[in-house]
Design brief:
CATH superfamily of the largest domain: CBS-domain
Number of helices: 4
Order of helices and strands: EHEEHHEEH
Radius of gyration: 15 Å
Largest sheet: 3 strands, mixed
Strand content: 15-25%
Number of domains: 2
Amino acid sequence: MKTQQSEITAAHPVHAIMTTSIFTVDGGDPLRSVAAAMTHHRIGALVVIEEEAPTGIISERDVVDALAEGGDPDEVWAADMIGTHTLWADPEDSVLHVARLMRGAEVRHIPVSHEGELVGIVSLRDVLDVLTAAAES
């Protein structure tokens, strides 16, 4: 269960702010389905699942980039868009550590795993809520 954002500091573990309702997409799903799922759930990223295991993340930016490069939304698959290296956070990583990961990799979402199991996802908005609350107090 999430703690009140105003009580959380950048030193707290990221599990205090991560979302545990995780939306996923199959690696073989086309970008059109990925975009529809993001729109339906009103989210900016989905975790890609292949062979029942999380393999990465696909974001709105990934979809837009693929289409801008001429990709057919019915012929480009989610698994093609996750890249070779997805950043993962551990539930015990600090909020500040995750913020630094996001900044360094220029990403807005990081999945959280523990012992190989997907347990949550953290968005830039989650991190900013903590950092701005700290700055305002």
